[in-house]
Write a structure and sequence with these properties.
The structure is a single chain. The chain is mostly helical. The protein has 6 helices and no strands. About 80% of the residues lie in helices and about 0% in strands. Helix 1 packs antiparallel against helix 2 and helix 5 packs antiparallel against helix 6. About 0% of the residues are buried.
């Protein structure tokens, strides 16, 4: 839904339709002139030379505007596309950025790098690994319980640190009174 609210999308679409439509009108006008020259048996070359410079310049400007609008439209669509994020694609993007330095300004590697897992996700992943080790018989029940207790204690310590840091930041900020 955010894509439809993007002003650059609508500006690009407007540019594509306007320039494309005007190119069609200009080409149709040229076709009409050639047809009328053929029907009236006047020399087409002199007729076309009379209007060639302004029409060719106008069409060139419209083609340039169409190209810029198409590139802008593609850019908006690509930037808003739902891209897969994984380390493998990010590594390929980083390699491309090293090989072709102008690509660094695009930031491909940041687009494809997966976000860092949250503390909860890390804890869930660690617990799942512990369960798998216990099920596979790699650790005993006592080791499993001890490691789970340690994991839960680390979570509580992390939460306590975060709360302490949050309170310290609130206490350190200047009074707004």
């Amino acid at each position: 839904m955010a894509l439809l609210g993007n002003k650059w999308l609508w500006l690009s679409v407007l540019g594509v339709f306007l320039s494309g439509g005007l190119i069609l009108v200009a080409v149709g006008y040229l076709g009409l002139l050639v047809y009328s020259g053929l029907v009236s048996e006047t020399p087409i070359v002199t007729l076309l030379l009379d209007i060639a410079i302004p029409v060719v310049v106008g069409i060139a400007v419209l083609v340039a505007l169409l190209a810029v609008s198409c590139v802008g439209l593609l850019w908006v669509l690509v930037r808003n596309a739902s891209l897969p994020r994984n380390d493998r694609i990010a590594t390929i993007a980083e390699r491309l950025e090293r090989e072709y330095p102008p690509l660094r300004s695009v930031g491909l590697s940041e687009l494809f790098t997966p976000p860092e897992p949250s503390a909860e996700e890390q804890a869930e992943r660690a617990l799942a690994e512990l369960k798998q080790q216990y099920v596979d018989g790699e650790i005993t029940e006592r080791e499993f319980e001890r490691k789970v207790d340690r994991l839960v204690a680390n979570d509580s310590i992390d939460e306590a640190r975060a709360a302490h840091e949050r309170n310290r930041m609130l206490d350190d900020r200047p009074n707004q009174d």
